[in-house]
Design a protein that fits this description.
Layout: H1 14-18, H2 21-52, H3 67-98, H4 103-108, H5 115-149, H6 157-188, H7 193-216, E1 223-225, H8 230-242, E2 249-252, E3 263-266, E4 273-277, H9 278-283, H10 286-301, H11 304-326, H12 330-335, H13 343-358, H14 362-383, H15 386-399, H16 408-414, H17 420-427
Parallel strand pairs: 2-4
Antiparallel strand pairs: 1-2, 3-4
Helix pairs in contact: 2-3, 3-5, 5-6, 5-13, 6-7, 7-11, 8-10, 10-14, 10-15, 14-15, 15-17
């Protein structure tokens, strides 16, 4: 049986003492209804908005996107939204089961004899496995029905299952030690545990950023050096003009899973590399592909990755401090029907309820992301050609069946990139 791993504070903080299980329970239910209702409303708005504008190509794209392609994109995005509409109630039911339904307390009552550290880790892994199991059927349907129906899926069932096993194994290999360290700090490091956990968490994210291009990504895809030719010459010239040094320019076999195209510039120090999806190179000419890379270099030039990391570290600092503030409060567990408190339960409950309370803040983070995209576009326009990048984006919108008419309010909560028409208009402005 998992028991309380940290004794409750003998003198609760005034703010903690003022809270009661009934009050926090009401706050949670109100936030849950608001979050669930908002997500349903936004999904419905997106479907209605796409359907309303499916009968005519927006003027900014009418010369390059056919009506049939526009309607194909509308049908594709509507199908994805309908699946989200079905998935939301399942997510809600799963969250209610684990919290108010007593599911977390039921899992915690399983008798592990390896001590609170291992038992706590198993409890957290069980919660993650439960959430993943709820997601799995929707991911399968999205891949083999929606993506396949609209001509994007290239993955076999065997390949999908292989990816699932590899992702799970890699997640355990990297994530389990981190989880054990954080639980150990919660048990052994006293009141400063959250600060030490924040340092460990921040270091872990920096490590992932460093090893992703050369160690993690090759476990899932094949990377081959870009062959000599017009594109390689143009890319090398762009890198020289921007003063960038990379370990290599590679082509990734993205086509083994999907026909969607992309490119990225990733890594730290000597591991930095340029990567083009093979699908993107089939969709764009060398000038357009070089402009797309210039956009990615724009993110590096403006230090967007570093700024996002700083934001992530600042946010995680605040959240861990909040968790430390709440984990010794009996009302936190009682309000969520979790029984006696423990470090593992506190961490599990906090991860479960965080999306409920954070949804209203997502427009702030996506707004910052859209601003970064405009800055990267401006960099690409200055170092290559705005017309080439605009042409590349239109081709990618067309090939990837991206909707050209997203609902503006939906975009505030979901889109990390600017609306297509606004983005193209800025690139074409001299």
């Amino acid at each position: 049986m998992i028991v309380a791993q940290s004794p409750p504070c003998s003198k609760p903080k005034p703010a903690l003492a003022a809270m009661t299980p009934d009050l926090f329970g009401l706050i949670f239910i109100a936030a849950l209804l608001l979050s669930f209702g908002l997500r349903l409303w936004l999904t419905q708005r997106q479907m209605v908005h796409i359907e309303r504008h499916r009968h005519a190509v927006p003027a900014a794209f009418s010369s390059k996107v056919s009506l049939s392609a526009h309607q194909h994109a509308a049908d594709y995005n509507s199908a994805r939204q309908r699946l989200t509409w079905l998935q939301l109630p399942v997510e809600l039911a799963g969250l209610l089961f684990l919290t108010l339904g007593g599911g977390l307390q039921w899992l915690a009552q399983i008798d592990f004899t390896n001590g609170p550290l291992i038992s706590g880790a198993v409890l957290l892994l069980a919660v993650m496995a439960f959430a993943a199991a709820l997601e799995l059927p929707f991911d399968w349907w999205r891949t083999f029905h929606i993506e396949a129906r609209f001509g994007f899926n290239r993955q076999t069932l065997g390949g999908w299952l292989k990816d699932l096993v590899q992702q799970t194994a890699l997640g355990l290999l990297l994530g389990l030690p981190l989880l054990l360290v954080i639980l150990w700090l919660m048990q052994q490091a006293g009141e400063a545990w959250w600060l030490l956990a924040w340092l460990v968490w921040s270091g872990f994210n920096l490590l992932l950023l460093a090893i992703y291009p050369t160690w993690i990504a090759p476990r899932f895809n094949r990377f081959t050096p870009l062959e000599d030719g017009t594109l390689k010459t143009a890319v090398e010239g762009l890198l020289d003009r921007c003063g960038e040094k990379v370990s290599g320019i590679f082509v990734m076999d993205g086509s083994k899973r999907s026909s969607h195209g992309n490119a990225y510039f990733a890594g730290l120090g000597a591991s930095r590399r340029v990567v083009f999806y093979d699908t993107l190179l089939k969709q764009l000419n060398p000038d357009e592909a070089t402009a797309v890379l210039a956009h990615e270099l724009g993110h590096h030039h403006h230090r967007h990755i570093q700024k996002r990391l700083i934001t992530l570290f600042a946010l995680s600092f605040v959240l861990l401090a909040l968790l430390a503030w709440m984990k010794d409060a009996p009302w936190f567990y009682a309000a969520l029907n979790a029984g006696a408190g423990s470090d593992a339960k506190a961490l599990a409950l906090f991860m479960l309820i965080l999306p409920v309370f954070s949804l209203p803040l997502t427009p702030l983070f996506f707004g910052l992301s859209r601003r970064h995209e405009f800055q990267a576009d401006a960099f690409a326009k200055a170092h290559t050609s705005g017309e080439h990048l605009a042409s590349a984006l239109v081709n990618l919108y067309n090939e990837n069946a991206a909707t050209l008419t997203p609902d503006p309010i939906y975009s505030l909560f979901h889109d990390s990139h600017p609306q297509p028409a606004e983005r193209i208009a800025r690139l074409q402005t001299h």
